[in-house]
Amino acid sequence: MSAHQHDHPDHSHSHSHSHSHSHSHSHSHSHSHGSGKVLLFALIFTGAFAIVEAVAGVLANSLALLSDAGHMLTDSLSLAVGAVAAWLASRPASQRHSFGLQRAEVLGALINVIFMFVVVAFIAWEAVERLFDTPEVDGGAVLLVGGLGLLVNVIVAWVLMRGEQNMNVRGALLHVMGDLLGSVAAIAAGLIIYLGGPSIMDPLLSLLVCVLILVSAVRLLKAVTHVLMEGVPAGIELAEVRLALADIEGVQAVHDLHIWSLSSSKYALAAHVDIDLLARWPGILPQIQQLLRERFGITHSTLQPEDRVLGARCELSAECAAR
User: Fold this and answer.
1) CA-to-CA distance for 258 and 74, rounded, in angstroms?
2) Which of 154, 153, 265, 142 is nearest to 192 (CA)?
3) What letters, b where the CB count within 10 A reaches 16 and e where it falls short, cover 206-243?
4) Per-residue pLDDT tens digits for 122-165
5) Taxonomically, which superkingdom (predicted)?
């Protein structure tokens, strides 16, 4: 009986799958579209100032400014990746991609993390070289441009934090926060040098920023990897979901339970549900959907009902036959 339903689902099973998918898609579309606009604004704003800061860094001979400009240039690239990923994530499902392209935002975040590792490695290399051969730095210019950079990064970070906090935006925000730290380091280096301190503070503070960015990049990489490996979403316990479903009247047991992330904010579930009588399934199904949606935020579910009594008889018959 259960095998037949799995291959040819009844009307109620089909409704469960299509309703949840439709809800998930419309929700994803609006938010992805909104995050795309936010990322596009940040891209234009960041890219324009990166050019200004790069020129100032060369003129002032400051690694702190050049590293911050390098951050912002890679930010522009990462924000462009994020904007494209947000657009892809909003595309509807197709014959080739039945879930749509919701994981594009996860791939965008992964690319951004890789960018950050490359930038950190480059700046760290330059900083170590300058520790042994420190050039003269124009502290006043570094202080002025670093201050402007801080203002730009605060504005961009504020805009990104007001948007949807999906993994794609988090990846872009990681870059911007790295820029913000870079601007703080540039201001500190410029102020120290302007007041007569040693120029070696410029590469030293750049190294400090690299360490801080690296910590955040590793944290985001772990989150991206968890989604790509189809791990259970953070904040959801498999045992808790199983118990909650089993508490619904008529549900005897839940097995073959799988929960994974379609994206950083969209979750899916598949399970076999043992019920006392198959005729009760049309009434049990909406209760399960409501519980999953309201309590666990799971909007896409594929549920296969199975007759507990019939299943037990089949198992018993198989055992008897084996003997």
Assistant:
1) 38
2) 142
3) bbebbebbbebbeebbebbebbeeeebbeebeeeebbe
4) 888 888 888 888 777 778 877 888 888 888 888 888 888 876 66
5) Bacteria
Over its C-alpha atoms, the chain yields an Rg (Å, rounded) of: 27
pLDDT tens string 287-298: 999 999 999 999
Q: At what angle do helices 63-89 and 139-162 cross, to 10 degrees?
A: 20
Give the model confidence (pLDDT) of 217-243 as tens digits: 888 788 888 888 888 988 899 999 999
Distance CA 226, CA 155 (A): 31
Which residues have a Cβ under 8 Å from the Cβ of 56 and sit 6 or more positions away? 62, 65, 69, 141, 145
* Rounded (10°) angle between helices 167-194 and 63-89: 170
Sheet holding 267-275, edge to edge: 251-261, 267-275, 298-307
Q: Is 51 helix (H, G, I), strand (E, B) or coil?
A: helix
| Cα(82)–Cα(96) distance, integer angstroms | 23
What does the pLDDT look like over 70-102, one tens digit per residue?
667 766 766 777 677 767 777 787 888 777 787
CATH topology of domain 233-322: Alpha-Beta Plaits (3.30.70)
Q: Where are the domains of the chain?
A: 27-228, 233-322
Residue in this structure with the two tokens 């910590």, named with its chain if needed:
215
The token duo for 277 is: 């009588």
3-state secondary structure 138-153: CHHHHHHHHHHHHHHH
